[in-house]
Amino acid sequence: xxxIDRAACEAMDRDDPLAPAxxxxxxxxxVIYLDGNSxxxxxxxxxxxxxxxxxxxxxxxxxxxxxxxxxxxxPRRLGAKIAPLVGAQADEVLVCDSTSLNVFKLLxxxxxxxxxxxxxxxxxGNFPTDLYMAQGLAALLGRDHRLExxxxxxxxxxxxxxxxxxxxxxxxxxxxxxxxxxxxxxRARSHGVLTLWDLAHSAGAMPVELxxxxxxxxxxxxxxxxxxxxGAPAFLFVARHWQDRAQQPLFGWFGHARPFxxxxxxxxxxxxxxxxxxxxxxxxxxxxxxxxxxxxxIDLQQVRAKSLALGDLMIRLVEQQCAxxxxxxxxxxxxxxxxxxxxxxxxxxxxxxxxxxxxxxxxDFRAPDLLRFGFxxxxxxxxxxxxxxxxxxxxxxxxxxRRPEFHQRAAVT
Length: 413
What we know:
By secondary structure, the protein is α/β, with parallel strands linked by helices. It contains 14 helices and 15 strands.
């Protein structure tokens, strides 16, 4: 296989149709950011938007801002902007709460819509908070509901008539392995099983087709590929045919049909609005809207093509430059089988990642031994991948990871 040099990567950047989108982000000098799958970069529009909201909309207009500036409409307005990114209709997506709370609400709704069954099916690679929410809900319901975990490759076979809902993350947060949403949704339907998808590692990084594949419910994250900022609000998807039939358990005043009647009895709103709970976090939602606006005019098929090319490039360059230094590819080698990241196992993975970060290459670590590199096509360049692998080679060859400070675990890895 021909050797790839940096000039070849620079040529790829010149031909990149997404290259102009890079200027939409603030990217620090001297940093190669390969962690947009954990926290997206800052959109350049965000600081000015937040300053205007705080000083003028809140500062000058005070409570009139709810009507004057449309704050109350943010959950639906932002949901409509997310909808095309996940293959949904505008009235099927709502921005609210956190991913964990949305999992709890939608999992409860799915169980209420399939009341004769008690089994929640998931896979052993699912994100832990989703599993915690399922465990907590099953304990709260107290009606013999239980969570069953199978290996990722065993999900299709396990779908059967005793399963109420299958809850999966489309792209594995550790390795980037991708579930076949269309195939799983089809098999689930054939057995009367409802589907709940976590899109935290796919929305904004690749086309998602919730409606076309017949998904029932989904949740997603606002601060990864959607660039909404630390702790940005999450979103949820409810297929139209479930919106007035499935009941979510958290009766909040923003989910009430007439919240400003202040009735002491709960009556749910029509449609997806009944899945709201409390007051929208206006400042956080304004930041998320700036993140969503970075997708204006962007073709998601081009995003996916570049994502695959970036991942393939990293795999080839690591093979070319880092063989013999203890790295083992943990992600699927075939691009179609993974999301927008590549992970490597290493016996001292945490220390290696800290040494990389010290040199300005920012990825992250996932226990027990994974170095995780995420690819955000809107602002990452092919030459960045070449430079990052060159730094990785230096860190491994010179054994910089052995320095004591790189072995001291921080609270966030």
